[in-house]
Automatic annotation (TrEMBL):
Stretches assigned to the Cellobiose dehydrogenase-like cytochrome domain: 36-204
Protein name: Cellobiose dehydrogenase-like cytochrome domain-containing protein
SUPFAM superfamilies (UniProt xref): CBD9-like
Any single Pfam family the record assigns to this protein: CDH-cyt
Source domain of life: Eukaryota
UniProt KW keywords: Signal
Position of the signal peptide: 1-23
Amino acid sequence: MHVLSNILSVLLLLLLSSKEGQASQVVEKRQTTAKYCNPGTQICYLEYSWGPTIPVFRVAVPDSASTNTAFDTLLQIVSPVSLGWVGFAWGGGMTLNPLTVVWPNGNGATVSSRWATGRTLPTAYPSATYRTVSASRNATHWTVETVCTGCSKWSGGGLSTTGVNTFAWAVSKTAVSQPGSSGSSFSIHSNVGMFSESLANAKVPRAAFEAYVKGAK
């Protein structure tokens, strides 16, 4: 298990929060990344976790993927039921990169593709599309797993399959206005964070990856 301690990330997040003029809370930087393998499948993920009040994020990619090219990415989010929405930034910040925003919808979840050019509500981003692999909810958590086409490469950037990538996340306890609509508005985040890691632990044999996401809708 690799323990992250990134003081520069904390300073950056504090700066962003002060610029927005909002009371966004920056979490303590005792975050961890690890390799997580689902015992029921052949899929292993790069897993990020911080604590019981923050979602667990898991990312997987096919091992055939190349840096700054178009390839599908798999994102699994396990969120406490206390959270109304969860966001994941593929490029490490709120602006100018694909944003995956998800929220609970009954016993399932809604996945929304967004893009932000400034510190305002992100708008729809049609260049990234999603297919849901699974979504569920119980008494303590809601979970969604989705495959994205268009999250590995974007105007001005893309994921590295050999170097270190920086990802970011945001959460809020406030429910969205229209849970059943991917175009719903949502409130400003109440917590933000980021982490940097290579995709070494996220690589899955291509055939296994494609078989796993084949039935996603």
